[in-house]
Amino acid sequence: MSTTVPAYRRIQTAVQQLITRKGLKPGDNVPSERELAKLHGVSLMTARHALTVLEHEGVVERRRYAGTFVAQPRIHFNKLTSYTEEMSSRGLAPHSRLITGKVIYNEDEIVAQLNLPPGSAMVKIERIRYASDEPFALETCYLPNAEFPGLLAKHLGTNSLFFVIENEFGITLSYADEEVDATAADERVAALLSLSCGSPILRICQVIRSSNNRPIMYVIGQYCAQRHTLFIRRFR
Amino acid sequence: MSTTVPAYRRIQTAVQQLITRKGLKPGDNVPSERELAKLHGVSLMTARHALTVLEHEGVVERRRYAGTFVAQPRIHFNKLTSYTEEMSSRGLAPHSRLITGKVIYNEDEIVAQLNLPPGSAMVKIERIRYASDEPFALETCYLPNAEFPGLLAKHLGTNSLFFVIENEFGITLSYADEEVDATAADERVAALLSLSCGSPILRICQVIRSSNNRPIMYVIGQYCAQRHTLFIRRFR
DNA sequence: AAGTGGTCTAGACCACGGC
DNA sequence: CCGTGGTCTAGACCACTTC
């Protein structure tokens, strides 16, 4: 079972709820480190930790000598989220269509990305993602078959893959390394996403890792560039 | 003048030098938190801080209960670097060509991105970036003219813009928020980058901020997708 | 002058991996 | 069993902003 939630996580969600519940606008200030520490009965370093995470996610903005403030708009930078989570955080209903769901044995390039022995069986899942009834992405996922027995029976047309992995298989995800580039839609992708051949596609290849840094899933996302932008934050 | 370098920064660069000097390979372990603390005469939290930053940059990988190790490749994830820094970190010579360098008054969309009053004067700088004599990117920068008097006289064909901003104007950069999408090369870009019209282009629009979170520079980068990939890391 | 975030200390306990 | 990273404490000083 899961261990107890760390204090800094509780504070983190508490601050986020404070923002949404009180309807704080960008620029409004949130409690200072010292206030949070007192409020939650923790030490200063712990309160700081919570704010540091929120800053990296783009929820909050810190100004030295001045305070901590609600950040500009609402994109969660650099945060690994599922399509389902992303949609519901924007108040939209997720909607997908399962195109492929089978076990494969012969894609050795991806086997290598997942650090598996050559010839290993993998589950391959292809889904089309919709935003308000318009298809905007084709996502192809690969997972080691040995670690996810019965995965294909989980109604992946309607269930969140992240949810199944984390809750039904008890795996904690930690981070993803991603390669981003641009391509043109080939015939198949164009047909699936209702585009013309050659339309610009934003391609994102992720290696998602579990808590012990083992690769757990390889995902190729092909996003219709007109309907999707990626937001990131980089620090100096 | 500049203040003293924080201890965690010193440890950070010390670890990086250790890796390059000893030629450590991915998977080799670096000193543990406790070792680093003893080595540099700092407390455990400070040594941890250094490793946390290195982990976010993708230099180092931590495995709970096991240790800290040199990370897989050597791309510096999520780190705001200049073209010049990126090239020299790969042992390549930077090479650019200045296309445009002038003061403009009439691009109000960008004026808004920089939080300036409407009609403000901005410096506009366009440069082509080369990788081993092949053009691979067109970068267009906008800066508030009032804050950078004499910027255009700084030999921007050869000098690093980041260097000039940080050292000659004494500004500390903190982070950049970026929008990434895919497009097709228009006629001008195609000509400048020796591509055919319609080739896939990875476009990155950055708002770079100084230490007090004021926008300092707006950059539109258009990268030839065949010759450039973006690496990022996202955390759960 | 009061308050803020940034840095730092010198300890502590925990859960787990590898020996 | 020992060493590891992850979490946490209860303080401290600094440089600076805002009032």
Task: Sum up the structure in keywords.
homodimer; 236 residues; alpha+beta; Arc Repressor Mutant, subunit A; Chorismate lyase; 2 domains; 6-stranded antiparallel sheet; 3-stranded antiparallel sheet; 10 strands; 34% strand; globular; DNA-binding
- Specify Rg of chain A, calculated over alpha carbons: 20 Å
**CATH class call of the largest domain in chain A:** Alpha Beta
Mean of the pLDDT scores of chain A? 90
Structural class, from secondary structure content of chain A? alpha+beta
Approximate strand percentage of chain A:
25-35%
Strand order of the largest sheet of chain A: 4-5-6-9-8-7
- Number of extended strands of chain A: 10
- Major interchain interface with per-chain residue totals: A-B, 41 and 43 residues
Number of domains of chain A: 2
Shape of chain A: globular
Q: Percentage of helical residues of chain A? A: 25-40%
Please tally the helical runs of chain A, counting DSSP H or I stretches of 4 or more residues.
7
Looking at how many chains there are and whether they match, the oligomeric state comes to homodimer
Stretches with pLDDT under 50, minimum 5 residues of chain A: none
Structure description:
Two copies of one chain form a homodimer. Chain A has 236 residues and is α+β, with helices and mostly antiparallel strands. Chain A has two domains: 7-70, Winged helix-like DNA-binding domain superfamily/Winged helix DNA-binding domain (Arc Repressor Mutant, subunit A, Orthogonal Bundle); 83-227, Chorismate lyase (3-Layer(aba) Sandwich), CATH 3.40.1410.10. Chain A has helices at residues 7-22, 33-40, 44-56, 83-89, 108-113, 161-168, 187-192; strands at residues 29-30, 60-63, 67-70, 95-104, 122-131, 134-144, 173-184, 200-210, 215-224, 230-235. In chain A, the strands form two sheets. In chain A, strands 4-5-6-9-8-7 form a six-stranded antiparallel beta sheet. In chain A, a hairpin with a 3-residue loop joins strand 2 (60-63) and strand 3. In chain A, helix 1 crosses helix 3 (44-56) and helix 2 (33-40) packs across helix 3. The radius of gyration of chain A is 20 Å and the shape is globular. Chain A starts with 6 loop residues before the first helix and ends with a strand. The model of chain A has no long low-confidence stretch (mean pLDDT 90). Strand 10 of chain A pairs antiparallel with strand 7 (173-184) of chain B. Chain A binds a DNA duplex (19 and 19 nucleotides) through helix 3.
